[in-house]
Structure prediction request, 876 residues.
Amino acid sequence: MLDTAKTRWHPIAASYDLPFRHVFHGQLLGREFAVWRADDGYINVWENRCLHRGVRLSIGINDGRELKCQYHGWRYSNRTAGCTYIPAHPADAPARTITNRTFAAVERYGLVWSAEEPQGEVPELPGFAEGELLTLRGIAVNAPADAVAARLRSYRFQPTGQIDGSDAKVTVEAANDFSVALRAVEGSSTTLAVFFVQPVDSNRSVIRGVLEGRAEGAVRMAVLHHHNDRLSKLRDVVEREAVARPAPAPLEPVIERVSPELAEMPEETKHGRKATIRVEVARKWQAADGIAGFELRPIRGLLPTFQPGAHIDVHMPNGLIRQYSITNGPGESESYVIGVKLEKESKGGSICMHETLRQGDVLAISEPRNNFPLRRDAVKTIFIAGGIGITPLIAMAQALHNQNLAFDLHYFAQNEAQLAFPEKTSGLGGALKPHLGLTPEATGAKLREILANYQPGRHLYLCGPGPMLEAARNVATEAGWPEAAVHFEYFKNTNKIDDSSSFEVALARSCVTLKVPAGRTILDVMREAGVDMPSSCEQGACGTCLATVIEGEPDHQDVYLNDAERKSGTKIMTCVSRAKSARLVLDL
Amino acid sequence: MSKAALCSDRVLLNDWHVVADLTNLSSDEPFHTRLLGADLTIHSRGRYDKEVVRNDTGTLVKSTKRYGFLWACLGKPERDIVFVPEAEEGDRHLVTGGSIAVRVSGLRAVENFLDMGHFPFVHTGWLGDEPHTEVAPYKVELTAADELVATECQFYQPVASPTAKEGFIVDYVYKVIRPYTVALYKSNPVQKHRLDVITLFVQPVDEDNCVAHPFLCYLKEGIDEAGIRSFMQLIFAQDKPILENQVPKRLPLDPRAETPIRADAVAVLYRRWLRDKSVTYGAIPARM
Ligand code: FES
Ligand SMILES: [Fe+2]
Prediction:
C-alpha cells in the first residue's frame, strides 16, 4: 500500500500550522519537510535539510522572503529554493545550481497537500466549498495509516447541528486506504465529514478531518471539542492494537546526492550566449520619466534563482541582445522586473523595448548571471546610482534592508519624475537619499562629501553613466578608499576599441593554440574552435567572458576590471581585450 | 538507550578513549556509560582505584587515568594516549570543561569543532558576529605524523575568550590528531605570542551519539578556572541543538552527500583522511 502512496496527494499540515514567518516541520512516508509560507503567500515545501551540512531547515529562519539556515547562514529563495548567499564567502555569487529539493504544494480545505511524485490532482470533495467548511485539529497516532483508516470507518460523531445529541446515525459514504467519508444524521441535522490519514512514517499517522458547513464562535468550539475527544479515544484504541503487532521498520527516504560539480565547489558553469527561458511581458508601465518597467513572467515553471546585482540578456524581437539588471528584492521569485531607459542614441535596443514590445508579448531571456555580486559583510555599504544605474542597486539595497544591514542609497537624477521604481525605493526609508538636478561640478562636490572619511569595513557600489562612474572612482581613491572596497558596473564600454593587433592565444587546459587576427576577438576565435565560453554584453562591460591569464601581457580594453586587477595581468575580458605580447596563455 | 551496533574498526578499538571525567565518578555509585557501542560500568574503589567492566561479557576493560579523565581501550592498545605538551607547562590552568552528551556522531562533532564559518550564526556575540562572516583562505596539510593541520586561520571575534574585552581578529591553528580527537590553538589575548590550547576528546558512545570532553590548557594570567569552564560550557551548549539537527546523524564520507565550500577545506580533508584510514564507525561510507 505504501508503495502507491508516494504518487498520491496527502495533507502534510493544516493552514494554521503556517503562521506568519514560521517554519513547520512536516513529514510524509518518512521524508521530512520544511514547510513555510513567504510573505507573498507562496507555500514552500522543501527537503528538510540544508545542502551545506545537512542541518534541518525547519529550525531555520523564515524572513518572509528567504529561508536562512541556522548553522552557517546560507540563504535560500522563496519558490525556487536556490541558494542566494553564502556568508563565509561574501564576495562570491553562489552557483545557481545549489538548489534544494522542492515538493509540490497545494492549499485546500484548510490543509496543505503535498506528494513525493504527484500524479493527478488533490482529492476533490464535492459539496465542500472553500470557506464553507471546518478543518479539525490534526490528531497524531502511533500506528500505520491503513490501520487508522480502517478504524475510522466505525468512527461515531454528532452532526454539527446536534452536537449535544447522542444518537446520530453514521454511514460510510466512501473509503479507501487513506481516507474515509462519513455522514452523521440526527433528525434534520446532517454533517458530512471527511478524514484523511497522513502516512507520516510506517508506524505513524495524523488524522486530518474536514467537516462541511461553517461553524462560528461557541458552536465551533463545541464541534472542535467533540471531535478532539472522540478522535483521541479512537487513537488510543488504534495505538493499543498497534503495540500488539510487531512494529514495521521505519521508512528510509532516499536523499538525493548533489551533483559532482557541486561536490568539488566548481567555477560557474560555462555556456555561450544562450537564451534558454521564455517569458511573457506580464506588465509594462512607466517606471519614471523616460524609463519603462517590465515584469517578465515565465511561460511555464519557475524562473531560476537570482542574486542581487544579477542581470539577464534580453533577446529582442528585432534580433538585438541587451543586458538588464534584475531589480527584484529577495524572495520576489514569481517574475523578474527590469527597467529600460529610452536612449537618445538608441541603436534599436531601447526603442524596441519602449515602442514595439507590449504586454502579452513573449521574449527569450538568458538565465540570470551575477558579475556584480554584493558582499553582505560590510559594516556599512554605500550605494551610488546615476539615472538608470539604479536598477542593480535597488535589488542590492532591498537585500540589505531585508537583513537589517546598514546602507545608504544615493540616487542622482535630473528631477523627481526621473526617480524610477518609487514603489520599491519607498520601502527603504531614510536610507534613500535622492540628489536632484545637480550640475557636474555640484555632483563632484556631493560625491566628495559622501565619500569623505573612509572607514575600514565599508564597501562602495557604483552604477551609472561612464563619466559619473569615473568621477566617483577618482573621488573614492582620493578619499582613501582601497580598490577592493570599490565595486562598479558600467552600462556600456565607451572606450574606442582598437582591434588592430594580431597575436596567438594558447589555451592551457584544452591544449590548443589559436591565431587572433586583426579585426577579430579572442572570444570569436575560441568559439569558432569549439571552445564554449559564456558571454553577455560582448563589449567588455558585464564581466561574463572573463578568463584567467597564465602567461603574456594583456591589452585591456574593457571597463569591467579595476586597476589592481588590470595591473596584476592575470585576468582578461575575452570579448574586447587583446594581447600586447605576441602570445597569451589562458587557463581554459 | 537502545542497543547499538558494535564497532569493528581496528584503529578505534585499539585506541584509548575518554569514558569519564574523573570529577564525575563517585565511590558510592557505579557510573554507566557506553563506548563504541559497548555498555560499560565504572566502579570506583576509593579515590584512585577505578575499574571498567563490559556489561555484555562481564570482562574487565583496560583503563587508565590522564589529564583528569578516565580512559579505556576495548582492544589491545596500539599507541599511547594523545600527548598534550602544554599540559606540562606550569603557568597554565588545566581544566576539564564538563562532559557534554550530544545526539550525533562524534565525527560530526569533530567537524563542527574545525568549522569557523558557523561562529557568527551559532555563537553570535561571542565567537562571531554578523556581518563579519568571511572565512579567509587558510592552509591545510597532512603532516609526517599523519595529523591534519590547518594554519593561518583567521576570524573576527567579538569575545574570543573569557578575558577578551573587545573584538579582534583571532588567529587559529587546528589539528586533527586522531579520528575522534581534535585540538585548537589560539592566540592568548594577554600574551599575544603564546597560544591557549583546547583539545577535544570525543567519546564515540555509539554511531549516533557522543560525549565531548574538552580539555583546556589556558595561560593563568588574568583568568580563573571557573571562568574558563563556564565559557566552554556556554559555547558547547550553543552547538548542541544545531548538531542534534544534522541529518543524517552519521558523517557521510561520500563527497556528493553534502556541498562543501572553500571554507570547508579542512573538513573535506578530514573526511578523506577518515576514508583512507577505513574509519567507518560513526560514518556513512562512500559508495564506490
Ligand atoms: S548547514 Fe546550513 S548553512 Fe551550513
Ligand atoms: Fe561551535
Observations:
- Confidence is low (pLDDT under 50) at residues 265-272 of chain A.
- The first strand of chain A starts at residue 10 and ends at 14.
- Chain A touches chain B at residues 32, 48-49, 51-56, 59, 70-73, 86-91, 98, 255, 257-260, 262-265, 376-379, 405 (CB under 8 Å).
- Chain A has four domains: 2-244, 277-365, 380-490, 503-586.
